[in-house]
Amino acid sequence: MNIVERLTEILVKDYKLDPEKLVPEARLDELGVDSLGVMELVFKIEDEFGVRFPAEQVELVTIGDVVAYVQNVMTPPPATGAAAGAAASQART
User: Fold this and answer.
1) Which of 10, 56, 60, 84 gets the most CB atoms within 10 Å of its CB?
2) What start and end residues bound the annotated signal peptide (predicted)?
């Protein structure tokens, strides 16, 4: 199951939202998810995906924002500097 499917499952099950309305441009507030609901959603996402949101405020306005943020948190940053050189060196051997 991918991120969108898992997020949709959470929103349908826990927020009783219509899956047909869960499109990337759908605003959470217009779906009835208020600021407290967004905070709860963040905790549910952390549990579901095994990720941690940073302490600073993250602006999640649309379904697409949530998906993009989870994808970003789950994707490891590219190796840089010495680590990248070592990885490239190992790949050639």
Assistant:
1) 60
2) none
Query: Active-site residue numbers?
Result: 34
Q: Which residue has the tokens 């959603």?
A: 41
Domains of the chain: 3-79 (1.10.1200.10)
Name residue, tokens 């948190």.
73
- pTM of the complete model: 0.74
Residue 34 tokens, joined: 């208020």
What's the Cα-to-Cα distance from 26 to each of 59, 71, 80, rounded to whole Å? 14, 18, 36
Structural Rg of the chain based on CA atoms: 17
